[in-house]
Specification:
The chain has one domain. The protein is globular and about 60 Å long. Helices cover 69% and strands 0% of the residues. Helix 3 crosses helix 7 and helix 7 runs parallel beside helix 9. The chain has 371 residues and is mainly α.
Length: 371
């Protein structure tokens, strides 16, 4: 769920920053629609398919990190240690805060006599979550200390293997379509294996070997980066093709097209957004407020489920009843605003300062923004 660029590094791509808030909001709405009053799925599949925003983030992560680091890998200046420290600086501070927040919620609930499922909230699960390895092994029990963090575990696995992804990209940089095909074949192979052993689709993998889910999508992002370097569009065609791709993606989501097709279309949108920035035609996607929200999207994504737990239980305590109530639409809208505001505050007051502090501590001669 993260991306960005070094100051003084490769050219910035504002559209790829701003789009992140829309992906994060899609995931928020997907979880929220499970509790609100409007029967969304009776009218459209957009919000249900918005759960695939996680996979879109995986593609985006592969694209942006290849954009930032491929040149260093190619010239021999790449340091995997520096890369991993920069990545931890980006993802770990907010992860740690949310994890501690969930521990506090669990302790408070226990003191108040509310039971937490010991299988889903185990000490071993807490440790594995803290180490970001809880999506690396087979399991039949979700680790619920912070639901969205399974994707961070998957991202961490991809970061550890980044030289492999970058090397594959360089090996096939003159044939990016072959690299895209390779990522597709890899997806089909992993999906077939996952269905064989777990009787479910790879795009449904989360705590149960969710790390496999990022492998073909991250590689696909690397492939799209190399394809984008071979394409040039003028501003107007770039804007038109981006709008067309966005409408195509929304249309596929609306009609509940097969999930792999939706993810593939999302990859197409990421490519066109990159070409939009390359053409200097970002337009509204370069608005400061959207850029800020795009930067804060990671905090919004991590915060929204713990906030939903707090919100519903606080309402149950204050107004009576229990936390399984159906949320009125006005309250759901208020929750979305609260999630955006809470994520923005977490990003501005803690996530970004902590990231910069870590970078200053380890890289005093390079104070650029972490990717």
């Amino acid at each position: 769920m993260t991306s960005g660029a070094f100051i003084g590094g490769p050219p910035a791509m504002p559209a790829l920053t701003s789009v992140r808030i829309f992906l994060a909001l899609g995931v928020v709405l997907f979880h929220l629609q499970l509790t609100w009053a409007w029967p969304t799925t009776d009218y459209t599949g957009i919000i249900e398919r918005a759960r695939l925003g996680v996979d879109m983030f995986f593609v985006l992560s592969g694209f942006v990190l290849a954009h930032v680091y491929t040149r260093d890998v190619e010239t021999g200046r790449y340091s995997h240690r520096r890369f991993l420290v920069a990545r931890l600086a980006r993802i770990y501070p907010a992860h740690l805060v949310i994890l501690l927040m969930m521990v506090a919620i669990a302790l408070t609930a226990t003191i108040m006599g509310e039971a937490f499922d010991p299988a889903n909230y185990s000490m071993s699960g807490l440790l594995r979550t803290a180490l970001l390895v809880h999506a690396w092994t087979p399991t039949s029990t979700p680790v619920e200390w912070n639901g969205p963090s399974w994707s961070l575990s998957a991202e961490w696995g991809a970061y550890l293997l980044f030289p492999v992804f970058a090397g594959a990209g360089l090996a096939l940089r003159q044939r990016p379509l072959a690299l895209i095909a390779l990522s597709g074949v890899l997806f089909l192979a992993l999906d077939a294996a996952y269905r064989r052993f777990f009787d479910d689709a790879l795009l449904h993998a989360e705590f149960n070997l969710g790390v496999l889910r990022i492998v073909p999508t991250f590689l696909g992002g690397v492939a799209l980066l190399h394809l984008s370097r071979r394409l040039v569009l003028k501003p107007r065609p770039a804007a038109l093709v981006t709008v067309a791709m966005a409408l195509l993606l929304l249309g596929l989501m609306h009609v509940r097209a097969p999930e792999p097709l939706v993810v593939a279309a999302a990859g197409g949108l990421i490519l066109t957004l990159a070409l939009l920035s390359k053409a200097g035609a970002d337009g509204p996607m370069a608005w400061p407020v959207l850029m800020f929200l795009g930067e804060a999207s990671y905090a919004v994504y991590l915060l929204h489920l713990p906030l939903l737990v707090l919100w519903k239980n606080a309402r149950a305590v204050l107004l009576g009843g229990d936390s399984s109530y159906v949320m009125p639409m006005g309250e759901a809208a208020a929750f979305v605003v609260a999630a955006l505001l809470g994520g923005a505050i977490l990003h501005a007051l803690f996530e970004r300062p902590a990231r910069l502090w870590i970078r200053r501590r380890f890289f005093p001669t390079n104070l650029g923004a972490a990717t």
